[in-house]
Amino acid sequence: MSKGAPAARRSAAALTGFLVVAGLQLTVVLLALWVVLGALPSAIALRVGVPLSLATFGALGYATWRALHTRHRVPAGVAVSRDQAPRLWELVDAAAVAAGVPAPAGVTVVADATAALGERTRMLGFIGGRRDLYLGLPLLQALEPGRLAAIVAHELGHGSPALGRWAPLAYRGRIAVGRIVPRIGRRNLAGAVLRAYAGVYRRIDAPFSREQELAADRIAAGHAGAAVALGALRDLPALAGMQRLFHAEYVGPGWQAGYVPDDVFGGLLRVLAARTTEMTMLRAREPEPSGPWDTHPPMAERIAALTALATPSGPAGPPSPAVPASSSSSPSPASSSPSSLSSSSPSSPPSGSSSSGGGSESSATPDDTGASSVDKPVDEGVEELVPDLPGLGRALQDVAFPPRGRTVVGWDQCLSVARTSEMEREAEAALAAISRAVGTTVPDAGHLLTLAADGRLRTAATTVFPDAPPEEATSRIVELLALMLALAALRSGVARWRHSWTGAAEVVAVDGGYLDLAELATAAADPETTESVRAYLTEAGVDLTAAAVDPGSARAQVLGGLVNLSADGERTDVLITDLGLLLVPGLPRSRGHESKRRLTRLAADGVPAGAVLPAEPVAASTGRHAAPSPGASPTASPAASTPGSPAATSATSPATMSAAASAASSVAASSSSIASSSIASSSAGSSGAAVGVPAVSPGSPAEASTVATKAAPGASVAPAAASVPLPGGGRFVPFGDVAGVTTLPGMRKGWVLGLRGGGNLTLRPALDADELPGGWAAWEEAVTFLAGTR
């Protein structure tokens, strides 16, 4: 008998405890109702007591069913049949034989760097169902067949009876409980007791869970070899990390700007091929220690166990880094824990997680064929696992990255628009702060140079940064000028972006020549040489008054979402963006269960930037705006709620201008001289804002990872509503229109938002209030921002 068999029996018995606890809870309530009915007079008991008792018991029974009901959500992916990929299915069948389990009924390729076995169980896993294997396209691209076989054997090994006859049931139950318990609503009548028992269950199940992981590792080592299994164990977290970096730096900014690259997966493949140094560093990174609630054994223990199983000829050394296997596909960001060979549950792409990656300076253009070359020849066997891997990547992109109104373009255009859009957002925020400081509109680089020439720009910088030493204020001025001059050069067609798969993008001349703006911006900051710089730029063909490109299909960054709130007494759903709040009329209570799905779709589609961006910044006063008490009239300009009014810019803080200046500092690369062709040198932040890029539905196909971003709200110019129709027929409240916020006391929290145009907006959570992932956290950040100095 396996040493894990007793732990498997205990885990299965603890799983049964959920049914026992639910039954006892219903029995106790039924007995209490029986006692109450017995104490009442018969007439009252029949007319009042019995109906109320039936309603109470029915409500608790329904709540219990809702709490224990398993909802199966199929990840977004492309099914691969045996006829389409016979070699891949041979690999899966061989792994199933090694694990001692039946082969899965289907194989689905998903966008995350993950592998997982999904089973459509019922009754907390007591009744099994159809089993499907989910394989991430990045694994098919980047891993050799041996390591892929080890990963598949590990996943199938989770359901192996090698740990005893109760092991498969215990595993199914743990997966079901892990899916059910986090989704039990806070207001579920039966939820409190079941959540409390879930803690007991996890402690009982933990020893079996850890032993099962080690057993799955042994199955993988026995099937593919210990050294190969060890390499796969290190490869998956590294691939997941590269995937997150890829989405944060390449896909996310373009997605937010309203563009989708025509070959998402090909782009990641190029990143994997180009950033081998980062891949090696990720593979060599020491794993984080496991916590007391971690169901996996420590990574060091797993590595030691696999090393001990290595062949006697020598210990298992560090395997070579994963090498991309094809040139036309690539993954989306996945969350693969370093403590597991693969993710415990498949999720459709993607969740943008902020990640930065340094790298060697390379100037390969995204469309350069040389940029997508691989270090060593591709193993022919890898390509044969899926005969048409590029075609599979394109089919998966259609499912995982539906444009949803965005424009599909090539990588070069997508990255160019994204970087320019990032710079424009930062420039808008900085110009809004300068406009308020000088008391007049500063819309472009030409006006900024005028302020620099007469010395008012330096005075404005002192106003915006009152505590900064003169040297720092001068530095901020130079950085802002570098940002604005680079934008002017791009808008005028004098410069273009040159992108790299290994590092930051830079602005170069149209012919590809190197450009530098650092010293030119320094000269422009000096009133004595400002006009000389203006004349030089005009002669070079730079239009200093060129307007920003129409945002078109650009989207505001969604930070979170709240469902079923009360806004001035009306049911309302709220999307929290980086520019303000989108209030969407709520659904009736009878359709309340549809609200979360609807808001998830709206978050995935995004809030059109054209609906929230201001027409132009206008001067406004600065300072702290305290939240008015309920019923009090906020002090505000009468026209503050109209586009282009002070409200449209008042959310910009000195910290915002500082952020813009920081972005500008990366735009102005350091250089000591101005060549005759010098206009700009820029890298407007190679890392995009940590924007969750939605798949069919973000996170899993129905959960919005777009709302997982933790960026501080209001980092850009707070907008006023424009003529672009808002999704869901909603109303947009820019952060700039909010004078302050007051938190109402009481058990049911509430907030009163004082509007600059007059009046208040009162928000309260309804009894059935819910959130998209990260919704309440994003709301708390927004409240903190609105209550602070802006």
From TrEMBL:
Broad class of the protein's primary localization: membrane
Ranges annotated as spanning the membrane: 12-37, 43-63
Cellular localisation: Cell membrane
Gene Ontology cellular-component terms listed: plasma membrane
Domain Peptidase M48 span(s) in chain numbering: 86-308
Pfam families: Peptidase_M48
Region spans: Disordered: 310-378, 619-652
Cofactors, names only: Zn(2+)
Protein name stated in the entry: Zn-dependent protease with chaperone function
Keyword Hydrolase annotated: yes
Family matches, as InterPro entries: HtpX_protease, Peptidase_M48
Biased composition (Low complexity): 323-354, 626-652
Any one GO MF annotation of this record: metal ion binding
Keyword Calcium: no
Any single GO BP term: proteolysis
Keyword terms: Cell membrane, Hydrolase, Membrane, Metal-binding, Metalloprotease, Protease, Transmembrane, Transmembrane helix, Zinc
